[in-house]
Structures are given as structure tokens and as C-alpha cells.
Amino acid sequence: MSEVAQSAALRRMSLLSLVGGAASGVGMFALSAVVARSASTSDFADFGFVLALSQVWFILTVAGLELAAPRLLAGRSPEDRGVIVGSVLAVTAALAVGAGVVALLVADPLAGATRSTRVLVLMAAAFGVATGWRAIVERLSAAHGRIGAVAAVKFAEAAVIVGGAAVAVLVLGRPTWNVFAGTAVLAALVAVGAYLAVLHRGTAPWRVSAGTGRQLLAFARYSAPTTVFAVAMMYIDKFALRIGGDDAQYAQYTAYFSGSLLLAVQAVFVLQSIVLPATVRAASGVDVRRHLRRAVPVLLLALPLSFVCSGWLVVQVLGPKYHYVLGEGAVFAVWATLYTINILGMTACVARSSRAMRQESIVLVARTAVAVLALGALVVTGRIDIPTVALVMVALELCESVNVIAMARRHLV
């Protein structure tokens, strides 16, 4: 197995995902609950679209660096680590500037296409760039061994989000969506500043060294496309519904997504904290495949029930303006279950083989193209609604399940 897969940084990252993901997830969900209860349906729809649209600028900012940085730092001397960190921060700064320029150029056309405003597009860009910066410096801090500092910053960020939302409601009564979005941007920027303070000691000047630049470029050839299309698969349904549906549908879809998929993401964080270290320690890929084969039946029984229950509970928390139909909730539970299991299987394959990452990149491109065609046809024909969109995404996850099984047979040997 490669030195990358054996690195302690990879094991530390699993702990970071568990602790940090839980903190940020709770904070953002609390913010969503406050928005849903205190703002209008239209404002909640706008806020949900800001979160979805921000991922476009997130991927422009990170470009796979959040995956490459911990791997580049594994096993390096303190001097080399400082140079690598300085190089990564320099590249991130350049990408952030480029993302900002793109936001200014496309703000008006994108706002028109998605029935939004220029302010919404620019706010989404600000949040995406800020969270991209946060993702990279967070992982750099973790790779330096500052897990405690990372956990503290994540909890502080969640406190800023929840506290800012509470103050906004108490002071303004019924704040608009941009007040809540601004709170999320501020919290991300506070986190970035804290992480940069953690990294300041021992970091070389922000300029790209020749060796680090070549390594980053080589890694980005595979990781950046995977990141782009993975994010596209998570958010393309929301773009389609925003274009073809109305505010009430979009707000309800955001409520469903918060109920089932938010818990699915947290389940992935928790289970990855088990799968990744087990994958690293396993003597062979066959052992990994055996562990997965034992876990999948349990997950197929436990996850759907937990997702249905969590979806119903979450919609109750969001307020009386949103309902939870069992039929639609069940479809979302199936989607979330398949998504969780597929991510775990894909993670195990990628941890054992870089060829699996290349294969997954190609599959993600194909899945995104199919999703665009299917959901685009629904928009054009005026037949887009919540159950149909969810069924399309379930069908795509079933195809991904077939791909993950094939990858496991090929790479977990």
C-alpha cells in the first residue's frame, strides 16, 4: 500500500471529519431552523439557494487542494512542511481572486437564469470562497497535528452562526435571507482567520515553490474533476428545481433535504471515521471488502428508518409552513441510504488505489451529464416536481451502487 494511505495524517483527518462535521452541521442546521421559522417561504427558498449556489465557488476556490494538502505534508520535515503550506496558501489566494472575478462577470446572467438577484449571487460567491478557504486551512491545521485547535475553531464557528442568527431575530424581528447569509459568511471568515493564526508559526512566505507546484498540479489532474462532479451531483437537483419550480416547492425541497440528507452527511462522517482507519490498517483489500460486506446489510436496515424519522422530526423543527409526506420522505430515505453506502464503498476503494479515483472521476462526469439531461428535460417540459426529481436522483445512486461494487471487486484485492 502507498505511503499516502499509511500516513497518520489520513487517520487524523477521519477524527477531524467526525468532530468538525458534527459541530458545523449542528450550527448550520440551527441557522436553517431559525430562517425557516422567522422568515417567509420566499426568503427560506432564497437562503437555501445561496447555500447550494455557493458550492460552485467552493470548488473554484479549493480545486482539490483540500485533499492534496494533507497528503503532501505527510512524512515531511518541518522546513519542507512550512514551504508546502506557504505554497498552498499562495495558490488558494490566487484561486480566490479568480473566483471573485468570475462572480462579478456572471452575477447578472446567473441571477436572470435562476430567478434570483445580483446580491444573492454575490453573497453565494462570498460564502463559497470563504468556506473554500476554511476547508483548506482547516486541513492544513489538522495535518500539522493541531486537532484540538481545529475542533475548538469549529465549535466557535458554530457559536457565531447560532448567536448571530439569534441576535438578528431579536433585533430585527423578521430578518431577510441576506442577514442570515451574511452571518454564515462572517462565521466562515472568523474560522479562516483563526486557522491562519494557528498556521502562522513555521509557515514560509506565500509563494509557490517549483517542487510543490508540480505536485499540486499532478494531484489536481485527478482530484479536481472528482471534486467538481461530486459537488455537481449533490446540488444539480436544486438548480433544476430553482429554475423550473416555484419558491414554495424549493423551500419544501430544502426542508426535505435538511431532514434526510443532512443526517446522511453526518452518517458518512461517523462511518468514515471507522472505515478509513480500518482501510489503512487492513492487511489486504480483501479484508476491507469483507468488513464492508458485513456492514452493508445492517446499514440497509438501520439507515432508511433513521432517515425517515429524522426527516419527519426536522420538518417539525423547521415549523408549520413545511410538511412531511411519507411517500416523498421514503424516497428521500432511499436516496440518503444509497448515498451513504456508496460514499463509504468509494472511500474504501480510493484509499487503497489511486486508479479507483481516476475511475470514479469518469463515472461522475457521466452521472452529471445524465442528470443534466434528465432534469433539464423536466424543466423544459414543465413537469418538474419534488417526487420526480428525487426519483431521478435515486436512479443515479443505483447506477453508482453498481459502479462501487465493480470497483470493490477490482481494487479491494
UniProtKB/TrEMBL annotation:
It comes from the Bacteria. It is a multi-pass membrane protein. The keyword Mitochondrion does not apply. Keywords: Cell membrane, Membrane, Transmembrane, Transmembrane helix. The keyword Transmembrane applies. The chain crosses the membrane at residues 48-70, 82-107, 119-137, 149-173, 179-198, 219-236, 256-278, 298-318, 330-350, 362-380, 386-408. It is found in: Cell membrane. This is Oligosaccharide flippase family protein. It comes from Cellulomonas dongxiuzhuiae.
